[in-house]
């Protein structure tokens, strides 16, 4: 089982690496990171803060878009190219196939995240600024956020087309960052229905704001290790539920 999982993971990593979108996204991100110097030149008093905002923000934006693209279209491409029939005909469970493909995606995103982080932190060091622990935490927790988004994309692509999966996953990403605001606004409503609806949306959507440590990095605010661990556990747990849902749906699909 471990051998099959490793093979599926490496195969997914190689497939994503061959995808030119990954290269384009990496180049685009490097350009955004380097362009932060144009912004910081006119913001002397907030030099480090703006550099952190631009660098971490560029990494987040491009990696999230890549995560949505890879996760929402993977199963659809397998079905369109008929390669899924080769997989289901082999002694490899569909659950293992889903987990292996997700692991390959996350390995790809981890490598890109490490590369982008190296460029960002090198740029910070070139300006004589310190690399702060909150920045390291923000970069690390970004991977957990990507895990949640990828798991949602896999859950959607297990039964929907690539376009629908991408649109819904993108909506979940933005709504997930606003879930706490939705809960607060619904609680202020005089309608009981709206209040319950707001609570339902809050608990159904991933609370991605809980995984966003970029504001703390900008203001050099260190979060207690216990809170970081709880947020990471929440993200991994939510992703696990989405993967289980994807496995449940995908295992019951008929590919005749």
From TrEMBL:
<keyword id="KW-0812">Transmembrane</keyword>
<feature type="transmembrane region" description="Helical">
    <location>
        <begin position="163"/>
        <end position="186"/>
    </location>
</feature>
<keyword id="KW-0472">Membrane</keyword>
<feature type="transmembrane region" description="Helical">
    <location>
        <begin position="96"/>
        <end position="124"/>
    </location>
</feature>
<dbReference type="GO" id="GO:0140359">
    <property type="term" value="F:ABC-type transporter activity"/>
</dbReference>
<dbReference type="GO" id="GO:0005886">
    <property type="term" value="C:plasma membrane"/>
</dbReference>
<protein>
    <submittedName>
        <fullName>PilI</fullName>
    </submittedName>
</protein>
<feature type="transmembrane region" description="Helical">
    <location>
        <begin position="21"/>
        <end position="48"/>
    </location>
</feature>
<feature type="transmembrane region" description="Helical">
    <location>
        <begin position="231"/>
        <end position="250"/>
    </location>
</feature>
<feature type="transmembrane region" description="Helical">
    <location>
        <begin position="136"/>
        <end position="156"/>
    </location>
</feature>
<feature type="transmembrane region" description="Helical">
    <location>
        <begin position="54"/>
        <end position="75"/>
    </location>
</feature>
<dbReference type="Pfam" id="PF12679">
    <property type="entry name" value="ABC2_membrane_2"/>
</dbReference>
<keyword id="KW-1133">Transmembrane helix</keyword>
């Amino acid at each position: 089982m471990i051998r099959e999982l490793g093979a599926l993971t490496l195969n997914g990593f190689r497939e994503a690496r061959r995808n030119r979108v990954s290269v384009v996204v990496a180049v685009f991100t490097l350009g955004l990171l380097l362009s932060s110097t144009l912004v910081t030149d006119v913001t002397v008093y907030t030099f480090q803060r703006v550099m952190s905002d631009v660098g971490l923000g560029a990494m987040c934006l491009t990696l999230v878009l890549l995560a949505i693209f890879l996760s929402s279209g993977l199963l659809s491409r397998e079905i369109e190219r008929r390669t899924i029939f080769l997989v289901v005909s082999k002694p490899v469970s569909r659950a293992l196939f889903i987990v292996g493909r997700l692991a390959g995606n996350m390995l790809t995103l981890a490598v890109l995240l490490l590369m982008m982080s190296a460029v960002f932190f090198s740029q910070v060091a070139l300006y004589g600024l310190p690399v702060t622990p909150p920045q390291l935490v923000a970069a690390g927790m970004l991977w957990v956020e990507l895990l949640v988004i990828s798991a949602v994309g896999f859950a959607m692509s297990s039964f929907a087309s690539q376009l629908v999966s991408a649109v819904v996953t993108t909506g979940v990403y933005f709504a997930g960052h606003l879930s706490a605001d939705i809960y607060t606004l619904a609680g202020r409503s005089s309608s009981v229905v709206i209040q319950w609806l707001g609570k339902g949306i809050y608990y159904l959507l991933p609370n991605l704001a809980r995984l966003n440590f970029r504001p703390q990095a900008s203001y050099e605010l260190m979060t207690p290790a216990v809170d970081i661990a709880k947020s990471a556990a929440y993200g991994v747990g939510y992703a696990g539920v989405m993967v289980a849902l994807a496995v449940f749906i995908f295992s019951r699909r008929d590919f005749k």
